[in-house]
Amino acid sequence: MRERRPQSVGRHGAVKALCLGLALAALVILLARSNASADSSGDGLILVAAATSAQETFNKQCGACHMAYPPEFLPARSWKAITGDLRHHFGEDASLDKATTKAIAEYLMANAADRAPGAPASLLRGIGPDEAPLRITDTPFWRSIHGNIPDSVFTRPEVKTKSNCLGCHIAN
Ligand code: HEC
Ligand code: HEC
Questions:
Q1: Atom of ligand 2 nearest to the CA of 17
Q2: Does ligand 2 come within 6 angstroms of the Cβ of 66?
Q3: Rounded to 5 degrees, what are φ and ψ at 156?
Q4: Domain presence at residue 3
Q5: How many structural domains does the chain have?
Q6: The dihedral of CA 5, 11, 13, 14: what is its sign?
Q7: Which ligand is nearest the CA of 11, by number?
Q8: Are 92 and 98 in contact (CB under 8 A)?
């Protein structure tokens, strides 16, 4: 069956969504910097270290097998569920120690679709309040954009799977 393509997903909103990960990453660092200069006691510097290291930890650990997916593509409850069972992660054991898992979970939840300031509402469209999709590729947002792409494109050797965003998209 062919998927319906809801008109409410504007191309503009979607483009914004893809750029969001980077925009937010820059914002976190900027905020941390301004705190550091405003706070002469030195606490600000600790904040800089904490803000960057959570993101770096996420990039390193969650980018080991696939790209580090931008947190804005799933609601906080999805990230909670994903980080809550890393031992059984899509057929792989992606488990990490407690402290690392906690830092990553907090980073992902703080920057999630329902928490990140300015995240387009379309990212959450069609996801019920009790639903916590474990895949970006299962969300109505993602499916509506990619619904017209034939399966044969996803199975090409350079793509292999829907989850391989960078098989088709360029990271910048
Ligand atoms: C040991 C390898 C490995 C590590 C480490 C890993 N993952 Fe995954 N992840 C996978 C596999 C395998 C899949 C399924 C890919 C597929 O279906 O093609 C996946 C899929 C996902 C998906 C769903 C992608 C989609 O289809 O929308 C998300 C979200 C995800 N991982 C998040 C994370 C997060 C967050 C971390 C870090 C805590 C992480 N992963 C670390 C192996 C890993
Ligand atoms: C088979 C190739 C392919 C894969 C894999 C793929 N995409 Fe796309 N994606 C496309 C194409 C083609 C479009 C443009 C669709 C259109 O405008 O009709 C697109 C559009 C988008 C858009 C809308 C903004 C834009 O750049 O046009 C977003 C956001 C997006 N994809 C995110 C993702 C994410 C996140 C993943 C991985 C979970 C992913 N895509 C995986 C092919 C792919």
A1: 29
A2: no
A3: -60, 150
A4: no
A5: 1
A6: positive
A7: 2
A8: no
Give CA–CA dist 163/16, Å, rounded.
20
Q: How is residue 76 written in tokens?
A: 């906080």
This prediction has a pTM of 0.81
Q: Does residue 5 lie in a domain region? A: no
Which residue blocks in the chain are alpha helix, DSSP H? Answer: 11-38, 43-61, 76-84, 98-110, 140-146, 151-154
Query: Closest Cα partner for 91 from 9, 1, 161, 5?
Result: 161
Q: Is residue 4 part of a domain?
A: no
Question: Whole-angstrom distance between the N-terminal and C-terminal Cα of the chain?
Answer: 34
* Pocket of ligand 2 contains residue 169 by CB under 6 Å: yes
Q: Please indicate, yes or no, if residue 172 is contained in any of the structural domains.
A: no
Atom 16 (ligand 2): residue with closest C-alpha?
A: 145
Domain that holds residue 86: 11-167
Mean pLDDT split into 10-residue runs, the chain, 172 residues:
40 42 38 37 53 88 97 98 98 98 97 94 96 98 96 95 94 68
Nearest ligand to the C-alpha atom of residue 59 = 1
Atom of ligand 1 nearest to the CA of 86: 38
Any idea which residue has 């300015």 for tokens? 118
